[in-house]
Amino acid sequence: MKKLAILTVLVMLFSFSWTMASEDINVENIPDGDYRGTGSGFNDDITVDVVVSDGQITSVEVVEHDDTPDYFEDAEEVLDRIVEAQSTQVDVVSGATASSEGILEAVKNALAGEEVEEQPEEDAQPEEDEAEEEVVEEEPAPSEPTPDVELTISGKTTETVTGLIEEGNSLMPVNTVEKVTEGSVEWDAQEQKVVITYENRPTLELEADSDQLYVDGEAVTMPVDVKNIDGTNYTPVRAVFEELKYYVTWEAGEINLYDTLEPVAEEPEVPEEAEEPEVSEEPEAEPLDVEDGTYRAASEEGRGFTTAEVTFEDGYIVDIDLVEHDDMGLRKELDYWYDVDNWAEVRDNYPEEYDSLQAMLDDLAEDMKATNSADVDIITGATGTAEKAIEAVDRAIDIAKGETGPFDGTFMGVSDIGARSWGIAIVTVEDGEIKEVELEEAGRDDAYTPIEEAELKDDEYPWDEFHEAKEVMPERFAEADSTDVDGVTEATGSVESWKQAVDRALANAGVYDREIGYSEANENGFVKADIVKDGDEIIDISLTEYDNKGLRKDRDYEYDVENWADIRDNYPEEYDSLQAMLDEMIERIKAADDLDEVDTISGATGTSEKAIDAVDKALSEGPYDGTFMGMSPVSARGGWNLAWVEIIGDDIQDVTLEEVQKDDGEYSIKDEDYDWEEFHEAKEIMPEWFEEKDSAEVDTYTEATGSAERWMDAVQDALRKSGRY
C-alpha cells in the first residue's frame, strides 16, 4: 500500500457550517400550493419541490441534483431543518456546505416564485394578447472573502492566505497552489491563461472568468469560474487538487489533502560493518500471575456503567473490549451512535483529539495493554468514561488473579431489551448481600421507534399496577436477598424484567457468575445465550436470535412469525411469537441433564439448534472452530458492518463482508448498486488480507477508510465470539 503524504489545511476562525444570513421569507403570506425552485449545488443545479399548506411548509423534496452522493446525503439533513424551523434561515451541514446552500437557495427561489402548474398540452398555444414577461438578469452575488486561512504542509511549511467563498465553494489564490504543491506557475499573456506545470503531475491550464480547467489538454468543468480580483486569480480548491492527484477530505475547520503519488520511503542501506545504534527502550511490563483466558467485569454504577472483557496470554493482556452503557443501560456506539460532537458542545475541556467515544476507549485499552495493568492516566475531559473503564479492567484483573468477589458497591443491571421496554435495576451490595434496590423501566412506542428515543416511565405512566410493583418489589428483593420472590399480578412483564436486571446487577457485583456464548452463524444469523449462575445452579438464561443484518428479532423489530408460518408447512402453531419459542427452549434446557438430550422444536429446528449451541458455548471453555458472525459499532449514519469468519485452529479460512445502511428508518445491506467503487473494491480485497494475516489487524483501504475500519472491528468481534479474544 502506498504511503500517503498528508497535507493539512487548518482553517482559523472559519467554519464550514454557518447560518444563512440572507432575508427570510414569511411562509404565512404564501398561498397553499406546490412550488418548484432551483439553486446552485457543488456540481450543478439542485431542483426542489416545496409544499405549502395552511401557511406552513409541509414538505421539501429534492427533484434533481448532480452532486456527489455521499456529500449530498449529508446535506439532505437541511430538508428536515427547514420544515422544523419553518424557515430557510437554518444551519448548513458541516462538510457538505455547497450542497446545503444549494438546497436552501432552491427552497427560497421556490417560495419566491410561482406555484407549480400543470404542463399545457403540447399543441396548446399561448393567448395572442398575452404579454411576454420581461426577463431581468440579476447581478451575480459578490464573492464572500474568508478570514485568513493557515496552510500547514506536512507540518513544515506555513502560509497565510485570504480565500473566497463562491456559491458555497472555497477558492484560493493560484499562487498558493504553486507553493503548496511545488509546481511552476506561469502567466501566458498571449492566451490570457495561467499554466501550472510539474515533473510528475498533470499540467493544468486555467482562464479567468471561466469554469474550464484543462488537464494535459483535456477540458474539465469546475463547479464555479476562476475569479480575478484586483489582478489575483482564485481557483476552486477541490477541483484543482483532485486533478493534481490529491485525495481531498473535508471536515469542519479542516481540509486534508493526501498525496496519492508519494512513493513508499525505502529503508536506507546500512553497510555491513555498521552496527545498529542502541535505542533506549521502555522497560517491559512484568507478566501477571493469572490464568490464561478471558475475564469479564463491570464498574460500579455512575450515570451508567462500563463492562470490560480482558484476555490474558502468558500473563499479559492481549485484548480488552470496553463497552460503556448509558443511564438506561443502552450500549453507546453499539445500540446507537453516541454523538460526541453534542457532548463536546457542553464541555469546556472536551478531548478534541478523539472523534468518537470508541476512539477514547480504544486509546485507554492500548495504554492498559502496554502497561499490562489498569494503572494508566485519566483522559482529561472524559474523566467519568475513563474512570469507569479503568475500574472495570482493574476488577477483571483481580478476578483473573482469583479474587472473584463479591464486591461491595452499587451496581447496575439491565434486562433483555424487549420490543417495547426493558427493566433497569441499581443494586447496592454489602458483604455479598442486597442492601438497597432502585428500579426503573425504559419504554418506547413500538419496536420500530429508534432505541435511543426510549424514555424512562415516570409518574404519568398510566398503569397503576406498574407503579405498585415498582414500589413494593425493591423491598421484596432486599428482604429475601434474592429475586426468587412473588410478583405483582397484572404487572408480570415488568416484574420479570426487573428480576433479570437485579440478577445481572448481582453478577456485576460478583455475587453471581455470568457467562455469555454465541452459536455458530449461517446466512440467517446466530443466537446469543446470556446465563447467570450461582455456582453450578443456573439462575437465569436469556436467548436472543439475531438476523443476517445483526438485528435482534423481536427486540430491534417485531419479528413477524405469522409471515414465517405462511411459508412453512410444519410451523409450530402453538407459539405466537419467536420469544415464546425461545422461552420453551430455555425450559427444555433447564430441565435436561445433558444438552445432547434437549429436543428441538419441530418447525423451528434451525433456531433450536443455534440456541442449544449458544448455551453449550456459554457453559464451556473456548476457543471454538466454526463460522461466527461479528458486528462493528454503529456509524454516525446509523449503519454498521458485518463479518462472517470461518476459523479452524489459529487459521482464518474464509471471510465474508457486508455493510448495513439505514435509510428512512429502514435497514438494508448495501448491494452491487451502491454507488461507491472504492467500497466494492475494499469489500472484495479485504477478506484476502484477513485470511493472509489470520488477524483482524490489517491495513486500511484508502478512500473507503470508514468501511474498512468497521470491517476490522467486525472481524475482531467474530474472533471474540469464537472464544479467541
UniProtKB/TrEMBL annotation:
Residues 114-141, 265-292 have a biased composition (Acidic residues). Residues 41-114, 302-400, 420-509, 517-622 form the FMN-binding domain. Keywords: Signal. One of its GO terms (molecular function) is FMN binding. It comes from the Bacteria. Residues 1-21 form the signal peptide. InterPro entries: Cu_amine_oxidase-like_N, FMN-bd, Mao_N_sf. The keyword Signal applies. Residues 113-151, 265-300 are annotated as: Disordered. Pfam families: Cu_amine_oxidN1, FMN_bind. The keyword Signal applies. GO terms for cellular component: membrane. SMART domains: FMN_bind. This is FMN-binding domain protein. It comes from Natranaerobius thermophilus (strain ATCC BAA-1301 / DSM 18059 / JW/NM-WN-LF).
